[in-house]
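INFO batch 0412 | record 1 of 1 | parsing
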Amino acid sequence: MIIVAQLLLSVGISQGAYEVSRLQASQTELSRTADSVTEDLVRVSSPQSLAANAEAIGMISNSNPVYLRLSDSAVLGAPSSATGSQAGAASLVPNALLTGVPLVTQPAQATGQGASVAGAATSPATTTAPTTSTAAVPAPGAGLPTPTTR
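INFO prediction complete | emitting tokens
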């Protein structure tokens, strides 16, 4: 009876070890997926991406900013309207990581909340890169190397 109990206990412990191993592998994979999604979110929320998307929907940047001081409601600077000739001046430093990320005006391939991020993450080869009129994206060998975290 003791040998049978010892055998059943050994089988139960080894089964638990296999379950722990499977769950650790699953946790590692989910952690990598979360890191990848976070990286995609940081990429599409960069100033270059926001400027390209704003330009794509018709917004133009004003090179003459005006600030409001809240303590005494004073306006600092001379307000003037932005003109269309200043378009693209805000994004002087291109972001090579935005290659293949669709703009907001392009139809997303996925539906629902976060569709543009999901569409960019699943098929970067089928989307077009955002273009700016003043700055070109440097060649891969010409700029700083970017680390691959996947």
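INFO post-check: Strands lie at 67-69, 74-76.
INFO record closed
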